[in-house]
Each structure stands twice: as C-alpha cells, then as structure tokens.
Amino acid sequence: MDKVLADLIRISNIAGRDSTLVQGGGGNTSAKTDDGKYMYIKASGTALKDMNERVGWRRQRIDDVLSVIQDEELAKLNDTKRENEVMRRLLEACEDDITSGARPSVESHLHAQLDKYVIHLHPMVIAAYVNAKNGKTQLEKLFRNEKYPPLWVPYTDPGFLLARRIAKLTGQYKERYGRKPSILILAKHGLFVTADSADKALRIVNKVIKRCRNKLGVLKARKLKPAAEKDITDAQLAIRRAVFEVTGQYLPVKYYKPTEGVAAFIARKDAAKLLRTPALNPD
User: Fold this and answer.
1) CA atoms lying within 13 Å on the CB side of residue 92
2) Rounded CA gap, 212 and 230, in Å?
3) What 3-state class would DSSP assign to 137?
C-alpha cells in the first residue's frame, strides 16, 4: 500500500477514535502524493475510525480538483446547479480502483489548496470559540505569540463558495507571512490543520485542542432531581413520533441519565430559551 495512503488511514483512525474531536463520525482528512499529482481523501459517508486500505477514501487528480475553484463560469450558476456540477467534477477527478461508488469529500477542492496532510475536525472545545460572539478575539489572544497564527475564516456557506474564499484568504496569508497557514479556524464550523507530515499534523491538532481547552471554564458539579416517569415516557414518545415522521420506522428510544455537562446546562436560568434557539453550529 502507498505510504501516503497508509499515513492517511493512520491519522484518520487516531482522530476518529477520539469522541472529543468528531461529531457523529464527522470530519475529514486528506494526504497528497510526493509528486504532487494525486490526493487521497476521505470518502463521504465513512467515519474516520472506519477508514481502511479497502474503504473510506478516494484518490483524485489534484489539477482537476483545483480547476473547479478556478472556473469562473461555476460562480455564475445558482447554488443547486453549481454544487451538483462541482460534485460531478470532483467525482470525475477520481482515479483509483474503488468500485463501490463512494463519493470523495465535498470539501476536496478546499483540501487541495493546503499542505500535504490535512485534518478537518469539529471538536467541542473549538465550537466553544467559533460559535461565540467574541470567539475570534479570544482565539487571537490565545495564539498571539505564534509566529504563524491561525487563519480565521468568517462564516461562508459550505462547498464552492467556502473553497473560493479560503483560496483568497490563504493567498493573503502567504503574502503576509511567506507561507500558507497550518491552522485554519472556521466560524460556525470547526478546525483545519495542515502540515508536511502526518505526525506533525497530529501534533498541531493536539496543541490547538490543549490550548483552547485550558482557557475554558470548568463545569461545576450539579445535582438534578430525577425526572418523573411520566415526563420520561412523554419524551420517548415524542422522539419516536418525530423519528417515524422522518424515516417511516418505529425505533426504540433509550433513556440516559444526564451527564455533568447536561446537568450544568439544565441548571442554567436561560436553559429553556437556549433550547428553543436554532442550532448554533451547522454540524
């Protein structure tokens, strides 16, 4: 097996097995061949922890992937037509022996612009900053002594528009610092880390997570009064009904006792208001 692919599988499995880094198996990874012609990238619909030498990735021609964001005609299409065409071209850029029909990551054109190894994750400690009003300011304070600080990416709709924006921002970053960023933090989204080696990429991920976590407050232990059986039953029925309306299937609903985090949230005076608020994070 190609060493680059082996490295990709290794870092994907390491990151994917850490539940604090991924949401529901989310995130994606990529690695470029030494000659710069190809990029192995995680396939959509596969969890990082499940990637292996047979499934969970595609190999793409980098030039064909980059040509997508360089195409000015695509920018003129409406969102639906544009993203459908982008996905068709990203799939056409694949050159491998995979016959399962697995699609390459929808963020392939973003990965292609970055360094050799790329790890994209949605850690909760990063979400605490990217979804906060003053998150950008706080991150700038955390990394103010870095020679090459993280690149902050304002919220942009995922897909073609995000890839184009990052192309512009990384170009500006390179003009200022003489190199592309190794850390990109996307508002309302998550973390991108990129490096010239697999182990270095993992070290950067750990460094960012550790620094961000250390500045977050520790949740105070809370005790909650056990929920009434009727309330539990009503909640289970409501969830089953909602699942049936979406899937057409009746699925059993488990009841889990609140964790410390859930208990601390419920104890907030504004918990009800926050629960009625739409999701803060698109993931």
Assistant:
1) 12
2) 41
3) helix
User: ∠12-123-274 over CA atoms, to 5°?
Assistant: 145
pLDDT digits (tens, 9 = 90+) for 184-211: 999 999 999 999 999 999 999 999 999 9
95-146 tens-digit pLDDT: 999 988 899 999 999 999 999 999 999 998 999 999 898 999 999 999 999 9
Cα separation, 269 vs 265, whole angstroms: 9
Residue 213 contacts residue 158 (beta carbons within 8 Å): no
Picking from 130, 129, 138, the residue whose alpha carbon sits closest to that of residue 187 is: 130
Nearest to 126 by CA among 114, 135, 118, 115: 135
**Dihedral over Cα of 35, 36, 38, 43: its sign:** positive
Which residue's structure tokens are 């709709």?
Answer: 157
What is this structure's pTM?
0.85
Q: Which helix (H) or strand (E) holds 238?
A: helix 229-247
Distance in angstroms (rounded) separating the CA atoms of residues 38 and 3: 13
Q: What residue ranges in 62-138 does DSSP mark as E strands? A: 117-121
**Dihedral angle of Cα 66, 70, 72, 74, to the nearest 10 degrees:** 10
**CB 221 within 8 Å of CB 260:** yes
Terminal Cα distance for the chain, rounded: 33
Residues in the chain, pLDDT under 50: none
Structure-token pair, residue 129: 């900053």
Helix and strand numbers, DSSP H then E, in the chain: 11, 7
Report in angstroms the alpha-carbon separations of 211 from 21, 80, 142, 208: 14, 39, 7, 5
